[in-house]
Amino acid sequence: MLINVSVMEKKYLILAYYLIQPVEDAHQCVKEHKNFFKNRDVAGRIYISSEGINGQMSGKKSDCEAYMQWLKEMPGFEDIKFKIDSYHENIFFKMAVKYRDQLVAFDRDVDFKNVGKHMSPEEWKRHIESENEDYLLIDVRNDYESKVGHFEGADLPACKTFREFTQYTEKELIENRKVDKDKKILMYCTGGIRCEYYSAYMKEKGFENVHQLDGGVINYAHKVGDKHWNGKLFVFDDRLVAQLGQEDKCISTCHHCQVKVDEYYNCANMDCNFLFNCCSNCLDKFKGCCKQKCSESARLRPVTHFTGKPFRKWYYYLPESQMSH
Predict the structure, then answer these.
(1) By CB count within 10 A, which of 72, 84, 124, 181 is most buried?
(2) Are 13 and 67 in contact (CB under 8 A)?
(3) What is the pLDDT of residues 169-192, one digit of tens each?
(4) Is the pLDDT assigned to residue 321 strictly greater than 80?
């Protein structure tokens, strides 16, 4: 299991899924999703485009099961695969279903008919454990994600956004000749979709021996556990960081004092929102901020609202008397 919440009753499911499949009328598909979710106990973030669908959501077990059946009955989505975990509550603030030009913000077109070879978690584990395999292992996630957890021996690009991986490829891999184009490349991301884009881009650049972890780290944890994984997993929901196995592994440190900690927070300064690791002592000392200057801002989230969850829109923190209706 990806999440271990042993002391709470797990009445909710967490779903992670995507499908690269042309959608004839993506805007209509968005409307149909919104109608389906009306009056259901669900929350999440779902993007739909002409390329397909990319979703992370949670909901009451019965509502999630109904949604999975409904989506699989929709023409074109029959083969969609869901990565499923149990939990005790919704992990998102609200449900958002949106149209996007791209399922992932890569800002360049790729050929999905020419992606890397999908490698099963079991095969992936064998490669990592083999002494005879020669490959470059690339973490295809942002640097703040790999900071709290990554595979042993992975190259961790200093990319703050997925868009920057084109620069990493051009400068580090090609210009600085970090890897020959005929060398085996293994890549992974959280759920698998970023590797669909990046592997196609890599092949476009002449790297032919490209492999990607099927279903990402989540699928790996489901199938073979957390062997060869250091730390925890960054997730784009209210948990921010999730434990993969039974052992509580921590590899990151506090942004201020460098004590070991893997709790993530957005800076309480609403004009900053920088994401950083922080211990409880420094959280109090700097009023939930990433630096002293931010703690002096006039637009601070109230301490009573500072729960460590991702930042909300500014109006969420206004007193009820100031809320516009």
Answers:
(1) 124
(2) no
(3) 999 999 988 899 999 999 999 999
(4) no
> What is the rounded CA–CA span in Å between residue 106 and residue 112?
13
In the set 29, 159, 189, 254, the catalytic residue is 189
Residue appearing with tokens 């990493």: 168
Our answer to whether residue 189 is catalytic in this structure is yes
* The predicted structure's pLDDT at residue 5: 47
Give me the helix-helix angle, 61-72 and 26-37, nearest 10°: 150
Dihedral angle at the C-alpha atoms of 56, 247, 151, 55, nearest 10 degrees? Answer: 0
Q: At what angle do helices 216-224 and 121-129 cross, to 10 degrees?
A: 80
Cβ burial of 137 (10 Å; 0-12, 13-18, 19+) is buried
| The 3-state secondary structure of the chain, one letter per residue | CCCCCCCCCCCEEEEEEEEECCCCCHHHHHHHHHHHHCCCCEEEEEEEECCEEEEEEEEEHHHHHHHHHHHHCCCCCCCCEEEEEEECCCCCCCEEEEECCCCCCCCCCCCHHHCCEEECHHHHHHHHHCCCCCEEEEECCCHHHHCCEEECCCECCCCCCHHHHHHHHHHHHHHCCCCCCCCEEEEECCCCHHHHHHHHHHHHCCCCCEEEECCHHHHHHHHHCCCCEEECEECCCCCCEECCCCCCCCCCECCCCCCECCCEEECCECCCCCEEECCHHHHHHCCCCCCHHHHCCCCECCHHHCCCCCCCCHHHHCCHHHCCC
Kindly report the length of the chain. 325
Q: Is the pTM of this model over 0.85?
A: yes
- pLDDT tens for 130-172 read 988 899 999 999 999 999 999 999 999 999 999 999 999 999 9
Token couple for 37: 């979710």
Nearest alpha-carbon partner for 54 in 191, 163, 219: 191
